[in-house]
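Replying to the earlier thread about multi-chain prediction with a worked example.

Input:
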Amino acid sequence: MVVVEIESNIETKLEDGKGYILLGETLSNQDTRHFRRAFENLERKNIKEIYVNMARVNQIDSSGVGILVVCLKRAKEKGGNFKIMFPRDEVKRIFKLVNIYSYFEIIE
Amino acid sequence: MVSELILKIPAYYKYVKIFKDLIEDILELNGISKDEIYEVKLAIAEAAVNVIKHSYCCECDKEIELTIEINEKSMVFMMRDFGEKVDIREIKSRDLDNFKENGLGVYIIKSVMDSVEYQHMKKGTLLTMSKVMGDGSCGNREQHRD
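Result:
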């Protein structure tokens, strides 16, 4: 079964027990609230495998980076996985700039 | 190549993009490399968001003024706000080992700029950021772990 929910520019999909968060073009100060809600919805459903598809993200700021790290930590604390899919160079660059590139499992 | 420009935006997040777009155009016209433009845009946007969040406490009609000075050797960006004075001692770069969701912006600004200085004004705060042209090492950069 596939369940899809959309809030703002963030789409959440449940498929085969895995959670997918598909982001729009930005993950910035104004998007973090929606991202948190999407993540918490999956958490409430006890989804352990969460994939964040960043293929469309071309702008990310410190708030966007911050929410990703917080969610990664929360997922790991609960024994889950939180993986980043298809990040563009802009995203990888800021991950490297703030030394968090190695925190994430990245799927190219 | 010596230029000075003053840009002003109202303190709304949606206008921060205008700063970024204008800076990109201005720096491109001055022959600044794409890498440096990327880093400057990142720092300016983080600084402007911090002004809205902390000096003005929320979006409002007050101004954020950005003065840009470019010469052959360096770029200087002076961001002025007219809001609450933030305790300069509290403005710290993020310790990544104790990562929290907020506060990473200052770390980014200090990582990409060569010098960063906060100064209280009669009203508000002046943040002066400078970057030496074509200096890959950037003296003030944070220590990177990898």
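The CA atoms of residues 37 and 145 of chain B lie 24 Å apart.

Feel free to reuse this layout for your own posts.
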